[in-house]
Amino acid sequence: MIPPILPTEGVSPGERDIFLRLKDDPITRDWIVLHSLDVANHRRQIFGEIDFVIIVPEKGVLCLEVKSHTRIRREQGLWYYGTRSKPDLRGPFRQASEAMHSIRKRIVDKKRDLAHIVFWSAAAFPFAPFTTQSEEWHPWQVIDNQTFRAKSMGAIVQTILDEARKLLQTKPTATWFEPSRAEPDTEQCREIADILRPDFEFFESPQSRVQRLEEELKHYTSEQFIALDAMEDNPRVIFRGPAGTGKTMLAIEAARRGVAANRKILFLCFNSLLGVHLAEQTEVLQPQVTTRTLHSHMLKLAKLPVVEQDRQFWEDQLPLAAIERLLESTDGNDVYDELIIDEAQDILREPYLDFLDLSLRGGLASGRWRLFGDFEKQAIYGAANLPLEEFRRTRGSNAPVYSLRVNCRNTPRIVSLVHLLGGLNPHYSRTLRPDNRVEPEYWFYESSTDQQELLVQALEQLVHEGFSANDIVVLSPRADKSCATAIRVAPWRDQLRPYSGARYGAIRYSSIHAYKGLEAPAVVVTDIEQIGTEQAQALFYIAITRSLHRLILLMHTDTRHEILATLASLSI
User: Fold this and answer.
1) Distances in whole angstroms, Cα of residue 157 to Cα of each of 17, 18, 300
2) What is the pLDDT of residue 46?
3) Which of 94, 93, 113, 120 has its CA nearest to residue 195?
4) CATH number, domain with residue 442
5) Are 474 and 536 in contact (CB under 8 A)?
6) Among 357, 381, 407, which residue terminates a domain?
7) What's the Cα-to-Cα distance from 563 to each of 282, 534, 550, rounded to whole Å?
């Protein structure tokens, strides 16, 4: 049976019964049956369709038209089915015959040695009596409700083709027919099926997939621009939303609008990899927009070298040094008309805010700024020490908060995973992207060796699906000694490279911390050993929301009980 199953819609009851009886009949085990075959090169119509094409070894090919109505009549040459008032000019026998001749011509044109095979047509009325005889059809071409119930479907089809072969023997003009040839043989049956309904498989190119996903993402993110429109008249705004709600794209759009208004803009973030991405995206806006990470901007102002430092330096000493440089400056070149911060949840720390206060014309209390952040789930660096509401009250002039709850990045099935295991509460209000019908995959490992083998399998699978190396990112909660760093199997050991500075064509890997704010078409998350703690769940949430299309999770078997416990808590 091609296709092997019936569609859930658009199939009449008669077609369904005949399909199942053909499928289950022992007589038909060597047959090939095509259901609902479209006829593109129809003899008389622009386009046609036949309900069944039944290819029977050593007998021939039967084209069967099915009418499932319980009442059938013909008046003045016009056919009426059931209670329908619109007539059918051709009728089921001519409909089947014309489709059969169109199909035979196509097959013979493709392969001349199939011209000796018998092609015939018939009409089936599984739920109605049909006893009328006419010169327009042979009685044995009719399958009415009585015949349908009296014999197996295989026996009925064999009888029709046997009668057709007998008739052809009596026709002097049927010189092409040779009764002694037991055709079609098994190979010819397959050739006929391949001509009429060939199997094929096309892969979307990696370049096309990346472009489509980028365009789709931009399209759905642009719907979020209403947030910027709504808050345009407010000089100070906090845009708050979970991962995937378009905050980064909105921040970039806010910078573009600021340039259009002739404002000098400082565009900052906390994460180094995100800083590189933002600098690339805003390159065309320079020099009006200065895009950096907070720390790189402070280092530049303080004129300090980039060297390995402890946490106290980055959180306290560096801000103080940058503040001193700002206070000493008299030219005002390092003061900006507007401040835009992405991933702002990591920057709410008093020394950082003191520095930003001096960098903005009018300061945080009176100047123009836009903060974009996930203040619920993504404050994982521990750099911030000021809750959002306290910032608003003490430093932010009680700036309005615009809540973003519509997911425009992830597919619906990944969003469901975020709701179930990511700990997001409240949930997204809507998901804009369509369902790609691809589920996130969970692969469990017991040892580091198991996990390395699974990672190799995951990469092989993604490449087989058509993803390029540049589409794939491997994430881990570990900054060092992650699964990706341990791969020694060729060619993956040479293709896997740290995200920062990776060459084009490499499969990049990164810690979840460092990749925050970014996204990729295909994401493999490794080294998931727990999801039950607050920190582990936050990292899990960030990791799974990075994927635009495909998500594979490599999880230790010990996480199974945490997954069950999380799901059980949701059902209470």
Assistant:
1) 15, 11, 85
2) 43
3) 113
4) 3.40.50.300
5) no
6) 407
7) 41, 14, 20
- How are the residues of the chain apportioned to helix, strand and coil, as percentages rounded to the nearest 5? 40, 20, 35
The whole domain housing 141 covers 13-196
- φ, ψ of residue 556 to 5 degrees: the values are -65, 145
Total Cβ atoms within 10 A of residue 122 = 29
User: Does residue 549 sit in helix, strand or coil?
Assistant: strand
pLDDT value of position 18:
95
Tokens of 381: 């660096």
pLDDT for residue 435? 87
DSSP symbols for 388-424: HHHHHHHTSTT--EEEP-EE-SS-HHHHHHHHHHS--
Asked whether residue 354 is assigned to any structural domain, the reply reads: yes
> What SS3 state is found at 492?
helix
pTM of the model: 0.64
Query: Following DSSP, what letter does each residue of 130-188 receive, concatenated?
Result: ----BTTB-GGGEE-HHHHHHS-HHHHHHHHHHHHHHHHHT-TT-TT--TTS--S-HHH
| Burial degree of 131 (CB within 10 A; 0-12, 13-18, 19+) | exposed
The pLDDT value recorded for residue 217 is 66
Last-in-domain residue among 407, 425, 445 = 407
Residue 395's pLDDT is 93
Residue ranges in the chain modelled with pLDDT below 50: 46
Q: Tell me if residue 295 falls in helix, strand or coil.
A: helix
Continuous H helices in 292-339? 294-302, 311-312, 318-328
Q: Is residue 201 situated within a structural domain?
A: no
Q: How far apart are CA 179 and CA 185, in angstroms?
A: 14
> What is residue 528's predicted lDDT score, i.e. its pLDDT?
96
Q: How far is CA 426 from CA 244, 269, 342, 389, 429, in A?
A: 14, 25, 22, 18, 8
Domain count of the chain? 3
Strand extents, DSSP E, 2-151: 32-39, 48-56, 60-66, 72-75, 78-81, 119-124, 142-143
